[in-house]
Amino acid sequence: MPKPTIAMSVKEDTMSFTPSRRALLSGAAAGMLGLAACQPSAPLGSGSGGEGVGEHPSLAYLPSTQPANWSAVIGAVNEKMKADIGTTLDAQFLNWSQYAQQVLLKFTAAETFDSALNARWMNMVQLVSSNSLADLTDEIGKHENLSKALAPELIEANKWSGRLWGIPQVNGAARIHHFGYRDDLAAGELTDFDSFLKYLSDVKQKNPDITPFELHNNVGLNQAITFSPLTWEDPQPVSQAFSGGSIGVAINPDDPTDIRPVYESEHIIEGIRVLRDLYEKGLVNKDALTLDSATANSQFAAGRFAAHGVITDGLGSQSLKTLQAAVPGASLANLLPYRDGLAAKPFQTFQSDNFAVINPAGDVDRALQIQDWLSIQENHDMLAYGIEGTDWTASGEDKYEALSDYVFPGFALLWRIDLERMPSTISASEEEIFAWSKKFENFTLDPLATFYPDVTPVKKEDAELTNVATEHLKPLCSGAVDVDAGLDALRRAAEAAGIEKVMEEMRTQISAHLAEQG
C-alpha cells in the first residue's frame, strides 16, 4: 500500500495565524498550531468606529491594528450605511497575538457583540461544538446581494455536516501557499525548485546584508510543504486535523481512510530537511520562533529579506511601494511550488481559511444586513480601500492605486471573489497566478472536500496534541532543531498524548463521511 502524503492546504496554514494582510496568511492559511496567548479580556482593542453615529452600532472584532485614516473612513462608511440600512459599524481591532483567545472568551461568555473573524485554524471547531455561533444555513438566501456574491460551490464546500457556521472570506477559489521574491535580485526568471534554492544561495553570496528567506513565529506545515521537493513533483491531498492547533494526519489520495500522522509523511519530512539545511547555511533567519509576522513583513518591505511565503490572494505585491521607497528599483515576482506550474491542478477542498462568524448573543439580523450591504461594490470598496480620491483611486476596471497608508483587514469581514480589486503594483506573475486561483476548474477536488471532523470524542487527546505541536512541530518547521532528533521527540510526545486514539477516531469519521457521500 502506498504511503500517504500531504500537500498544501487551502487556507492559510492551520499551524499559524497568517496575519500579514490578511493574513495573511503569508501565510495563511494544513498543519496545525494555534498561537494565541491567553490574555485578560480588557482592554479589548486598539480602535473603534461608529461613535456618535448610532446609539448601538454593530460591534465586530477584527484582527490587526487600527488602519491609518480610520476615523475618516469609518465615518464615511457609517454615514452611508446609516442612510441605506439604518445601522452603523463599530470595529474593534485586536492584536494578532491575543486575538484568538480573546475572541474565544467573548463568544463562550456570551458577550454582546455581533460578529468576528474566526477559522478552524483558530478555535471555530470549539465554538461550533459549544453552540456559540449562529447557524447561517438558511440565512444567506434571504439577502440578495450577499447571496449573489457567494458562489454555490463555495457555500457547499464550507458547510459542516450540512450546516453553515460562518460567511466564507475568500477572494479566490483556491488558497495556494507559494513564494514571493525580489525579482531585482534574480539573475533570471525562477521556474523550478532548484532555481529557487540557487536564488537564495546567490542572494547570500552577493548581498550579505539581506537574509535570503523570511520565516516568522506563525510558521507552519505549509512552509515545510512548499520547501519539499516531493510536493513540487507530486501535490497530494490536504491534511486533516480535529482542530487548528493540533497535529494533523496525512491522507492517501487512493484511499482517504489510509492515514498516518503528518510527521510520518515523506513530503513533510523532506521539506523539514530542506528548511534545516537552509537554517544551517544561514539562508533563513534564525529568530523565526520569536519574530512576529507583522514585524517580519515590515522588514521584508524595508528590504531586509529577499523572499517569503505568500498565498494566492493577489496581495503579495502590496508592499512594493514601501519596498521601492527603501530600495529604489526593487521589483517583485511570484513562484508556484509545482513542477507543472499553472497546469498542476493541485488538490483543493475549497474550504475557506477565514470566516466572518456571527454571535447568537448579538443582533444576527443586523450583522447579516451589514454583510449584505458590504456585498455591493461601492460599499465594499469604501471600507476595503478607504475614501476614493484620498486613500485610493481606480486603476482600470479591476485594480486600485493606494494613495495613503490605509490598509483594512478585508479577509476578516468583506472578501468577495468578484468584488476584490488588485493593487496596481501587482506583478505580472502574481496577477497570472491570482487569476488562475479564482477558477474552480483549475484544481482537483480533494477527496475530503466537504469533511469537517468532530473533535468531541477525542477532545482531551487533541488538546494535549496541541501542546505537543507547539513544543515540537513548530521548531522543526522553522529549521531550528536537528531533524532526526526532533522527529523522534515529536513522535514520542505524540504517542504519549494519544495520537493513536486520535487517528482511529479520524479514520472512523472519514469512513462514515465517505459512506454518506456514496
From TrEMBL:
InterPro entries: DUF3502, TAT_signal. It comes from the Bacteria. Residues 447-514 form the DUF3502 domain. This is DUF3502 domain-containing protein.
